[in-house]
Design goal:
Blueprint (H helix, E strand, L loop, with lengths): L13 H5 L4 H4 L1 H12 L8 E6 L3 E4 L5 E4 L3 E6 H10 L1 H12 L3 E2 L6 E6 L3 E2 L4 E2 L3 E6 L24 H10 L13 H13 L10 H9 L22 H12 L13 H13 L10 H9 L6 E2 L21 E2 L16 E2 L5 E2 L7 E5 L2 E5 L2 H9 L44 E5 L16 E6 L5 E7 L17 H5 L5 E3 L7 H7 L4 E2 L6 E3 L9 E3 L1 H10 L14 E2 L7 E2 L2 E5 L4 E7 L4 E7 L8 E2 L1 E3 L5 E3 L1 E2 L1 E12 L3 E5 L2 E9 L2 E9 L7 E3 L8 E2 L3 E7 L5 E2 L1
Helix pairs in contact: 6-7
């Protein structure tokens, strides 16, 4: 779409405009006469004579808009007001006009003649003055017909200021098809870039002033038309084939948008990502090969193995080999003698390789990608990929259980689920544990609670709900890297207030959907200050998750090897103290029927036995208790976003408390898909007693104390 050039208004120079000379008869009086006659209801045409202006001057219409009077145009002036002036000082008048406009007036009488005066288009973000015509027809009998100009003012109805508002407009264009959540995640940034490309703007994914203004114009901002990714939205059709494609991509946690059956931009990008993982041609076309691979799901993904070819290649140059399941570095674009370029992303959102760059692999969360330019490598490293391959483990699969029936026993605590339970999906809600967040609402209602280390040496909770619910859960806080690792085995959805920039896309890549601050499922309470006042209704959250298509399993696998073990070999125990950092430790004490929680918080006071309370919406309070405590000692590490975390894949020490007894064992896990296997020193499975459970992920650099 081509845009008209917007001309600026022009004004006469101030010193000339202000002078009170004879030129006032040539400009001001002309203007006054025109305005007066435009205001007149009955125009007496026989009172006009013809007056020719041979050079452009400025005249102002009734609405104070500028009109350019073209040269050689006719304009009518009241004889009574100007006759005396013209008779007395014609020469003086002409000289005055020369001083003003470097032009002169020339009066003459002509035959019938018609000229058109065009007003310029003056536009700003709030007002548009439409081009109109003033037709002035003069004859020898001085008959004049005048058509008044009209000025229309248009106030834009759309103002883009926030990411959420941008998502709404991008969704109307079928560029963005995800959730309106106000989160500037991967697909939102890609959508902004695509809109910028279509609109001829700088493609940086930043919602700046120019992008906001262009977005408010919708498709009128487009300067490039044609092709699948710039198709007119009026031509987009809803098809069942596209719905099926979107569902399959969503099951693979690639597509996160709506199942709307529209082959929009986000659907295309998601299909390309699948094609990349499956080793197919990355063209965004849903052809036979892509359909066939998509039917296989994750089984169609290719795996990459780095091989050292130095021993087999006398020239010490890597070679290309390929089988159905293994690939080495692809060097088809590598040519160190070629013309070097800076890698960039083309209009198909595919990186263009630099021939001079020797390709390398980058790794993240078990995924491997080959990069073919320094620019591409920098982009991956900025997204927390690593050049170092992570240690890998063999998946251990499902855990064995005792007296456990799928659909009857809860996968998160092993207990029989009450009839009519709202066990549609597993959700894990982040719960703040700051001094100002206590007492919390939620731990007392959850089926299981996971406590994790966060920055500042503090901890936060992941309250897991499956068969239980509460309409008053909070305060809700942001996600951290460890959160998805405990939810993935049960197909859980992470509920949080948000996350550090770039973390949510990583969590989604791990196969865990994320729900962030959204109404009406979330709400804020007035009795606390932000950010410790964000609460939610778990039943509504579950329904939202199901509506978004996040449900993975009808019956999630058990998170631990639930059973009814004999505790004859367990040690008698009365308390367990777990240290997360020099600022935080917790103690669980057996009171004869359950374990009660006390804590040390350096941000609160120096006491090590502060009772930890919960509170409900009615103000009722009680001390936090649980029937089973599982402490898993994990390797600590610092996430690339500078977030303290622990690794939950691998193995380590496990301490289990139940019914006043203690079991010192080990935990093992081969991948984030695995549940936690509890074993003895000979790797024999150990069953965990069923019951409401509190799971503490403790850094293995901190020793527990118990007795």
């Amino acid at each position: 779409m081509r845009y008209k050039r917007l001309h600026k208004k022009s004004y006469p120079k101030k010193e000339l405009y202000k002078k009170r000379l004879n030129k006032a008869a040539g400009i001001n009086h002309i203007q006054d006469s025109i305005n007066e006659k435009f205001l007149s209801i009955d125009i007496e045409f026989d009172k006009y004579i013809d007056f020719k202006i041979t050079e452009p001057i400025e005249v102002i219409d009734l609405h104070k808009e500028k009109l350019n009077v073209d040269d050689a145009s006719k304009i009518s002036i009241n004889t009574k007001k100007l006759l005396k002036i013209l008779t007395i000082g014609l020469i003086t008048t002409i000289s005055s006009v020369f001083l003003i406009n470097n032009s002169y007036f020339d009066t003459e009488s002509t035959a019938k003649e018609s000229k058109t005066l065009m007003s310029t288009i003056v536009s700003n973000p709030t007002t548009t003055v439409k081009t109109e015509q003033i037709e002035i027809t003069t004859t020898s009998s001085t008959t004049t017909t005048t058509l008044l100009p009209t000025v229309n003012t248009t106030i834009p109805l759309i103002i883009i200021e926030t990411i959420e508002e941008a998502q709404i407009e991008l969704k109307k264009l079928y560029i963005y098809q995800g959730n309106i959540d106000g989160v500037n995640g991967t697909y939102t940034k890609l959508s902004i870039k695509e809109f910028q490309r279509r609109s001829g703007l700088k493609i940086d994914g930043v919602l700046g002033p120019n992008t906001k203004l262009a977005l408010s114009k919708g498709t009128d901002a487009y300067v490039i038309l044609g092709g699948q990714e710039t198709v007119d939205i009026s031509d987009l059709d809803i098809s069942e084939e596209t719905r099926d494609l979107q569902k399959k991509l969503k099951d693979l946690n690639i597509y996160t948008g709506d199942i709307d059956g529209i082959y929009g931009f986000q659907t295309v990008v998601s299909l390309k990502e699948f094609q990349r993982k499956a080793g197919l041609k990355i063209d965004g076309v849903y052809g036979p090969n892509t359909k066939s691979s998509l039917e296989k799901g994750e089984d169609s993904y290719v795996t990459v193995e780095i091989t050292n070819n130095e021993n087999n290649n006398s020239n010490n140059k890597p070679v290309i080999t390929s089988t159905d399941t293994k690939l080495t570095v692809d060097l088809q674009n590598y040519n160190p003698s070629g013309n070097c370029i800076t890698g960039y992303v083309n209009v198909q959102n595919i990186w263009v390789p630099d021939p001079c760059f020797l390709p390398v692999f980058v790794f993240r969360y078990g995924n491997v990608a080959q990069v073919n330019s320094q620019a591409e490598l920098d982009a991956y490293l900025n997204q927390n990929w690593s050049l170092t391959k992570e240690k890998t483990y063999t998946s251990l699969g499902k855990v064995p259980t005792q007296n456990y029936t799928d659909g009857y026993n809860s996968p998160v605590n092993g207990l029989p689920m009450p009839s009519g339970s709202n066990n549609s999906i597993v959700i894990g809600i982040k719960n703040d544990n700051n001094v100002r967040a206590r007492p919390q609402s939620g731990p007392q209602s959850a089926d299981a609670v996971v406590e994790v280390l966060v920055e500042g040496g503090m901890t936060r909770f992941i309250n897991i709900f499956y068969q239980s619910d509460t309409d008053y859960h909070g305060p809700i806080r942001s996600a951290r890297p460890t959160d998805p690792t405990v939810l993935r085995p049960v197909g859980g959805v992470l509920v949080a207030s948000g996350a550090t920039g770039g973390l949510i896309p990583e969590i989604i890549d791990m196969g865990v959907p994320v729900i962030t601050d959204k109404r009406p499922e979330y709400f804020r309470i007035s009795s606390r200050n932000a950010p410790h006042n964000l609460y939610a209704d778990t039943a509504k959250l579950k329904q939202l998750a199901v509506n978004r298509g996040y449900k993975k399993y009808t019956n999630p696998q058990p998170l631990f090897p639930w059973g009814n073990p004999s505790q004859s070999s367990w040690s008698t125990n009365s308390y367990l103290t777990l240290t997360f950092s020099s600022y935080t430790s917790t103690t669980w004490s057996w009171n004869g029927s359950s374990y009660v929680r006390t804590y040390y918080d350096a941000y609160k006071n120096s006491s090590s036995d502060n009772s930890h309370y919960w509170i409900d919406k009615n103000g009722n309070q009680g001390q936090i208790t649980t029937s089973t405590v599982i402490a898993l000692f994990c390797e600590p590490y610092t996430h690339p976003l500078q977030l303290p975390s622990v690794k939950t894949v691998g193995e380590g020490r496990a301490i289990i408390l139940h019914n006043g007894k203690l079991l010192d064992a080990r935990w093992k896990r081969g991948s984030n898909l695995d549940p936690f296997h509890i074993v003895d020193k000979n790797n024999n499975i150990l069953y965990v007693p069923k019951g409401k459970v509190w799971i503490s992920l403790v850094p293995n650099t901190k020793n527990p104390s118990f007795g």
